[in-house]
Design a protein that fits this description.
CATH class: Alpha Beta
Number of domains: 1
Strand order of the largest sheet: 1-2-3-4-5
Order of helices and strands: EHHEEEHEHH
Shape: globular
Oligomer: single chain
CATH superfamily: Gcn5-related N-acetyltransferase (GNAT)
Number of strands: 5
Strand content: 15-25%
CATH topology: Aminopeptidase
Length: 185
């Protein structure tokens, strides 16, 4: 699809005080929000220290999030006074597990620096909880960057619990290639 992408909204129009309490609307992200999602994802990559490895493009988001079979969904927090995307929650579903109920997996929760401290993260989490309830999910899950104690306190305040039964494991591309070759022999 070669439709032109709309320009991203600015982080905050000049002259708008960061202390003005604007109304925030939480809504599903639309195809036209791709530039804003990309801006917020890049900001998260900087915050979490993987900006050099960040490879997501607007086209990737269009195909993977807004194509015929979306691989992810997103909620945006929009500052209605400036029409600015202030934050995002990107999530996907695991169709079922042991109880035959889906799991809503929060992949990314991010609120722009200028909008922090206004309960936008909480509003996004509440919107995800409502979505999980509508979908009949048995649980919501997410990861927290090691050492991000502020995020841990935030999630705990909302009722989240640290997962102590499982330890996260991963395999990078080299490991995948090695394992795949070993099993083909």
């Amino acid at each position: 699809m070669n439709t032109p992408e709309p320009a991203p909204r600015t982080a905050r129009p000049s002259g708008v005080s960061p202390h003005v309490q604007a109304a925030i609307q939480i809504r599903d992200a639309l195809h036209t929000d791709i530039p804003d999602l990309l801006r917020l994802m890049r900001a998260l990559a900087v915050f979490e220290g993987y900006r050099a490895d960040f490879a997501v493009t607007a086209r990737d988001l269009a195909v993977r999030g807004f194509g015929p079979r979306p691989e992810f969904h997103a909620k945006l927090a929009i500052d209605t006074a400036t029409d600015t995307a202030a934050g995002m929650a990107v999530y996907y579903l695991v169709p079922f597990t042991y109880d035959l109920r889906p799991t809503l997996m929060l992949k990314e929760l991010y609120v722009d620096n200028g909008y922090r401290g206004r309960n936008i993260g909480e509003q996004l989490m509440r919107a995800l909880a409502r979505q999980a309830r509508r979908l009949g999910c048995g649980r919501m899950r997410w990861d927290v960057l090691h050492g991000n104690h502020e995020a841990e306190r935030f999630y705990q305040r909302l009722g989240g619990q640290r997962e102590n039964s499982w330890v996260a494991w991963r395999m990078d591309r080299n490991g995948i290639d090695t394992l795949a070759q070993e099993t083909e022999s």
